[in-house]
Amino acid sequence: MSNSAVGNRIAEAQQEESCRKRKDGTATATSVTVELEVLDCPVCFEPLRPPIFQSPRYVLWGISYVHPAVASSQILRNICHHCSRPSDYNRCHGIEKIIGSIQVPCSNTKYGCSMKTSYYEREDHETTCPHAPCFCPDTVCSFSGSTGMLQEHFTDEHKWPSTKFRYGWCFYTNIKEGIHVISGEDGQLFLLNVASEPFGCVISVFCVQPHDTDPKFRCALSLSYWKNGSYHAQSSEFQVPSMTLSDGLPRDCFLFIVPKFYLDEDSKICVTMKKASA
Questions:
Q1: Are 191 and 138 in contact, with CB atoms under 8 Å apart?
Q2: DSSP letters spanning 189-215
Q3: What is the pLDDT of residue 244?
């Protein structure tokens, strides 16, 4: 059999398979490249999302279709935004099917997110994506990554001490200048920062999260100490602020002060992390 004949038989088989899939409804996946901006509404430039409407005067994709926020306008409901002639908008199911079939990866793929969504749902997903980046607070370090990547970076690259805790259970840590990495049993990442001041030490605790949320955690710090025949005790409980650390560690968010008089080399503070609802 000649090469041309073999080629023709292969082409016929492929055509038959394509027809079969069209008849039985079996989808065929393929890869295409498209600029996502062409899928935006030509009036308000927001991503198109079902239901999508189209002027019956125009059938060319990309010329005269709008999403419901625009179609609901009294003006656009009666006047085609392309030609300015009177027109009623009808549901465009063909474009809706195309739009719904386009899947795009989350922009946080490099940080570990494997989620794919329809292109008009990507922004909604990324506002809550747990893999969105946070940042290393070290002023000479430009590292960014998911909280899991950050925790590994803190302990491996900066050698910051690390403690894993259970919510509602206390643990002790040295009162020494610098950052202490603490992580919950659920993997939630926190930083405890101790800074020296002329009057003693100031301590703050931060929850490292990629999105602004209402405080979900509380922290209780306590210190008790015998010195020169006198007993000193102090404690404080506060909501833990959440942040991405994009601007480094805040310098005006200290929540616990230890007077210099009560500080020794082996001074320790008791830390108890709680969920806000607990």
A1: no
A2: EEEEEEEEETTEEEEEEEEE-SS----
A3: 92
